[in-house]
Amino acid sequence: MGIKLNRKQMAVIVLLVIIVPIVYNKVSGAILGVIQKQALLAPKEVIVDNPHIEEVNVSAEATGRVEAKYSVDLVARVSGFLSQKYFKEGAFVKKGQLLFKIDPREYELEVNNARASVQQYEALLTNAQQELDRANALIKEDLISRSDVDQSLAVRNQNRALLEAARQQYELARVNLSYTDIKSPIDGRIGKVNITEGNYVTATSGSLANVASLDPVYVSFSLKSKDFIKLLKASNQFKDVQVQVQFSEGPWYDKTGTVDFVDNKIDKDSGSVSMRAVFDNPKLWLVPGDYMKVKLIAPQKVQYITVPQACTKGDAMSGYYVWAVKDGKAVKKNIEVSDDINTNWIVEDGVTLDDTIVVSGIQNISMEGQKLKTVKQTTDTSNTDTEAQPTGSN
């Protein structure tokens, strides 16, 4: 039989149908919120470890430029028409090899004239000496006066001085004649000709061509003051520092260079020190003017505190930091890094060996002071994989 409900009962039923779901949702939401809040308040699990000590060779990098050890501009030392060249542009030349010829005829005439002057004054000096000898003999017999002897002596001395001057002029003429042969002062490669045959050249005409030595060569570079001090402390005044250079296309040069020049000051504008290394270059692979990557390695090993790069946050501009754990809570530690070793940062300041830092699970840390559950990272010597072992919860 059917149940008959009055209007009041129907209204109550409708009201219950509406209210019960709302109440249920609010109650269940509140319960879920409490559960979620408790979950958030529960300590997050992270893997921790202490900073490590690593012993490495101190090194630094810079950008360098290859330079010829000797680079000579050939210039005319006497004036005249450039009559001939005796080399092929870009060829190798030897020290003393004849390269250019300036028309020598004018200077040959000067040599001949100077030689004739020398012969003339030699004859005059011989005659003056004979006159002086005769005067000295006659004065002994009182046949001439003392003033006559003095006059003969003065003539002799004058001709001696004139002969010496003539000899100097003769030597200068010979030197100028030798300058008409322009020879290479070094072994090296000669560049292109700047002034061709047929031109009148003087000492102010500029470079006729350039000769550059190619073995050995210099590589000049500048080292930041921080790296300079670091290498200085780990070497014997850079005498034992190994220098390596890398070509722009990738491979490293197969010979090691040595530092042969260190500037005596730090540049106030760049904050760096100018340096230079010398390299043997028998295959001529190092070409003057080329830019190279330079790496300097000190022989003495130095101990550094390191932390994994993966556990750091931040960047070189804003600075790096790591999360540490103290009394079961997250602590932010700003660190100063100087270099990297494999996948670790070298830490100059910010952490000590006693600190406990988070090496994995940093994504679980949202704020400083957050409670954490730590798991100690250990390395199994029988396996290269890193294992994590719980040390307890906080």
Describe the protein in words.
The chain has 394 residues and is α+β, with helices and mostly antiparallel strands. It has four domains: 44-56 and 303-390, Beta Barrel (conserved putative lor/sdh protein from methanococcus maripaludis s2 fold); 59-69 and 214-300, Elongation Factor Tu (Ef-tu), domain 3 (Beta Barrel); 76-102 and 182-212, RNA polymerase II/Efflux pump adaptor protein, barrel-sandwich hybrid domain (OB fold (Dihydrolipoamide Acetyltransferase, E2P), Beta Barrel); 104-179, Helix Hairpins (Orthogonal Bundle). The protein is built from four helices and 22 strands. The strands form four sheets. Strands 2-11-14-13-12-15 form a six-stranded antiparallel beta barrel. A four-stranded mixed sheet has the order 20-1-21-22, with no helix packed on it. The chain has a four-stranded antiparallel sheet with strand order 3-10-8-5, with no helix packed on it. Strand 21 (372-379) and strand 22 form a beta hairpin. Helix 2 packs antiparallel against helix 3 (146-178). It is rod-shaped and about 180 Å long. Mean pLDDT is 84; it is low at 380-394.
